[in-house]
Amino acid sequence: MTPTTPTVALAPPAPRFVDLLAAEWIKLRSLRSTYWALGTGALAVIAFNANAARVDASDFPRFDPRMRANMQWLALRDAFSDGSAMILILAVASIGAITVVGEYSTGLIRTTFTAVPDRRALMAAKVTLVTAVMTVYGALVAGASFALTQAILDTRDRGLPLSHPGALRVVVASALLAPVCALAGMALGALIRHSATTMVATTAVLLLIPTFITDRYRWTAAVKHAQPVNAWTRLTDIAFGHDPFTLVPRHPATVTGAWITFAAWAAVSAVVAVVAVDRRDV
Amino acid sequence: MIEVNELTKRYGDTTAVRQLTFQVRPGHVTGFLGPNGAGKTTTLRMLLGLIAPTGGTATVDGRPFRDRPRGLRHVGALLDAGDVHGGRSARAHLSALARSNRIPYSRVDEVLAEVGLSGAAARRRVGGFSLGMRQRLGIATALLGDPPVLMFDEPLNGLDPEGVLWVRGLFRRLAAEGRTVFVSSHLMSEMENTADQLIVIGRGELIAAESVTEFAARGTRLTVTVRTPDADRLTAVLSAEGAAVAPYDDRTLKVTALSAARIGELAFHHRILLEELTPQAASLEAAFMELTADSAEFLAGDSR
């Protein structure tokens, strides 16, 4: 009998993806800036929505009968206003970008890649965690906005339940805007790797450029509808095609197309974020 | 065991590292020396898979580091003490790293205690740390996975004398435990009390790979400082033995080409009182300067 050497005890444990997720979770929650950014973002979004509802509630006695008849469209618009969507996009895209750029600008990325040379797995974990956190965050912000705005409109007896046709779509589309734009921010951060430039780029790509694209021609309309902010506008416009005061454009966006836009941006951004860091020197 | 073979890194027209070949063996502290811009950091980053070589290979224990899914149990590295996020506490920073490599959290407290950052310091945000404290955190990071191979890039920067002493002791202990310890520096004086093997590079090329003793022997002009009340007579005696004697002041002589032992012997023989007999400790530094003078990237007062 020869004594066996305890090689099993010396071998490092098998790598697990869940450990990378847990590590990214520790990183995210150990930064004070995370709480500030998420907290102020949520407060601003909810406050803007509540204010829209408050204005409509206070103006309600002066509405003429035709406007009162269409009050449900207004209530659904107040549930998540355009301004709030812009704030949400800016906030989550910045936070998403910072999860990547923050590592590059501080130099932490070298420590991180020395601990986890498998960069794709690391970035996949980062992408997964940010998607999960932002989906929960978006759901909380959109849900709270809906509850609060409808409670305010209820003072005029015009608040809507979530079961009202279109209400759930407003909440879900607004909630999902958070992970979609956070992923876009991560992708741009992984490509640019520089804080200030990334912030300018996310604002330009997600907010500025979409407003410049016309839907007058078929192809520009297709490009316009493929932008997340425009997809969100289409999804939350429950009155689309029903509102007698708004012209339906020549090349209208579809609800299905808008959902596909969300999914495509999320998927492409996730792939870009994972692949972009893989072969570049740090 | 670190093996670098024909390693080359080019950035456009600039060649940072040129066909570098060397090995770093376990059980020793190996110094990695070269003037600023010699390519030390570039080499270490290639070893860690952070940057891709233009040519050649760099392996740790027979494998390119990037092939490892997790790194901390294979190589511990301190590249730059600034490679942390200033917004996190030392403990949060280490906890995230430990978790990613399935290292128990108890190990975080162990290494924090080892580097002297336990207690309140561990809970403070790293942004408020001094350079010395960051170096300690960096060393804690390197020790986290209890790795067989350790690499440190200029680890003594910013450390106080007590810290320097501690780091030297730590490196020797790690090497005595059979680990490979590879420490870069641009100061020979930092290495002579720490390393027993040397890899010297200049302008990205290998200049020397040998033991410190062998390297010191390259110092062609060994100087001995001698103080005596009888300088004239001693000068005559030493000159007769073939030594070059230069008076420093009226009681002090700088003697080259004769060992301190032989000078003492001659003085004793001729009944000359010696007040001081000091072999110049800077000989290693001199050897280093001599060797790298041609390859220093940035020379003060350079007239090019």
Instruction: Tell me the count of domains of chain B.
Output: 2
Q: How helical, in percent, are the residues of chain B?
A: 25-40%
Structure annotation, total helices of chain B: 11
Task: Please tally the helical runs of chain A, counting DSSP H or I stretches of 4 or more residues.
Answer: 13
Q: The CATH topology of the largest domain in chain B is what?
A: Rossmann fold
Keywords (chain A): Membrane, Transmembrane, Transmembrane helix
Protein name (chain A): ABC transporter permease
Organism (chain A): Streptomyces albiflavescens
Question: How are the SSEs ordered, and which strands pair?
Answer:
The complex is a heterodimer of chains A (282) and B (304).
Chain A: H1 7-10, H2 17-29, H3 32-59, H4 65-69, H5 71-79, H6 82-106, H7 108-115, H8 119-153, H9 167-192, H10 195-212, H11 218-225, H12 228-236, H13 255-276
Helix pairs in contact in A: 2-8, 3-5, 3-6, 3-8, 5-8, 6-7, 6-9, 6-10, 8-9, 8-13, 9-10, 9-12, 9-13, 12-13
Chain B: E1 2-11, E2 14-24, E3 29-33, H1 40-47, E4 55-60, E5 75-78, H2 90-100, H3 106-114, H4 120-123, H5 131-143, E6 149-153, H6 161-176, E7 180-185, H7 188-191, E8 197-202, E9 205-211, H8 212-217, E10 223-227, H9 231-240, E11 244-249, E12 252-256, H10 260-269, E13 276-279, H11 283-292
Parallel strand pairs in B: 3-7, 3-8, 5-6, 6-7
Antiparallel strand pairs in B: 1-2, 1-4, 8-9, 10-12, 10-13, 11-12
Helix pairs in contact in B: 2-3, 3-5
